[in-house]
């Protein structure tokens, strides 16, 4: 089955620890994205990548880092510098680089930091 | 600053009712407007609109875009409990933020039996 997978589904961490969220797609999409969703809020873009080994900051990149070593994978690291990391994180991909085509979303990872 | 505003933020209706969800936007270099349905987890794609006045339809759902007045509506006729979800509107803007989606806060629709 083609699609986007995110793991884990739920993640609990102590404050001060870095944590990496996984995102893998087998849709052969060039572009991948990370969003954060807080209760009652829309999705906010953290980082996006149009091509392997290249990525750009979104609107709320502070405290996050990404890598894009393979086309299929776009992991997100939530660092201890992120002041309010507890949120629902969604990964997406699209067939075209930003500029056309809908984005397909993974099932999300709910991160809780205490 | 680019923004997308959805209204109402929440809505409660009974099965069989017709609902209209609104999305207005102010963005630089508009490319397209997209509607998504989000139940528990991943948003699922509904429609992408790029041209004014052309209705897109899928079953009981339809949507239209007005690029002059900068808004879109999503209609759901004969609502069912399975339509209960958060409906997200997103606008793809070009220029400096080429192709990134700017999301509204969503409309939470609850359909009661």
List strands and helices in order, with pairings:
The complex is a heterodimer of chains A (114) and B (113).
Chain A: E1 4-7, E2 10-13, E3 19-25, E4 31-37, E5 43-51, E6 54-57, E7 64-66, E8 76-78, E9 87-94, E10 103-105, E11 109-113
Parallel strand pairs in A: 2-11
Antiparallel strand pairs in A: 1-3, 3-8, 4-5, 4-9, 5-6, 7-8, 9-10, 9-11
Chain B: E1 3-7, E2 10-14, E3 19-26, E4 30-38, E5 43-49, E6 56-58, E7 61-66, E8 71-76, E9 85-93, E10 100-103, E11 107-112
Parallel strand pairs in B: 2-11
Antiparallel strand pairs in B: 1-3, 3-8, 4-5, 4-9, 6-7, 7-8, 9-10, 9-11
Question: What does this 3D model show about the protein?
Answer:
The complex is a heterodimer of chains A (114) and B (113). Chain A has 114 residues and is mainly β. Chain A has strands spanning 4-7, 10-13, 19-25, 31-37, 43-51, 54-57, 64-66, 76-78, 87-94, 103-105, 109-113. In chain A, the strands form 2 sheets. In chain A, strands 2, 4, 5, 6, 9, 10 and 11 form a 7-stranded mixed beta sheet that branches. In chain A, a hairpin with a 2-residue loop joins strand 5 (43-51) and strand 6. The termini of chain A are far apart. Chain B contains no helices and 11 strands. In chain B, the strands form 2 sheets. In chain B, strands 2, 4, 5, 9, 10 and 11 form a 6-stranded mixed beta sheet that branches. The chains are: A mainly beta (114), B mainly beta (113). At the A-B interface, strand 4, strand 5 and strand 10 of A face strand 4, strand 5, strand 9 and strand 10 of B.
């Amino acid at each position: 089955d083609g699609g986007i997978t995110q793991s884990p589904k739920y993640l609990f961490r102590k404050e001060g620890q870095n944590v990496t969220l996984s995102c893998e797609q087998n849709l052969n999409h060039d572009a991948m994205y990370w969003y954060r969703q807080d209760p009652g809020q829309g999705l906010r873009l953290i980082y996006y990548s149009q091509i392997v080994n290249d990525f750009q900051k979104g609107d709320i990149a502070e405290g996050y880092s990404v890598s894009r070593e393979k086309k299929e994978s776009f992991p997100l690291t939530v660092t201890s510098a992120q002041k309010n990391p507890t949120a629902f994180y969604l990964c997406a991909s699209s067939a075209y680089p930003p500029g056309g085509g809908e984005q397909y979303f993974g099932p999300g990872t709910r991160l809780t930091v205490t | 600053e680019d923004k997308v505003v959805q209204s109402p933020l929440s809505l409660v209706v009974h099965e069989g009712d017709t609902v209209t969800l609104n999305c207005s936007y102010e963005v630089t270099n508009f490319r397209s407007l997209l509607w998504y349905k989000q139940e528990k987890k991943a948003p699922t794609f509904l429609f992408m609109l790029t041209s004014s006045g052309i209705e897109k339809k899928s079953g009981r759902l339809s949507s239209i875009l007005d690029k002059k007045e900068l808004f879109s509506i999503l209609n759901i006729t004969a609502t069912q409990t399975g339509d209960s979800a958060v409906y997200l509107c997103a606008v793809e803007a070009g220029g400096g933020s080429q192709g990134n989606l700017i999301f509204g806060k969503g409309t939470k629709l609850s359909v009661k039996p």
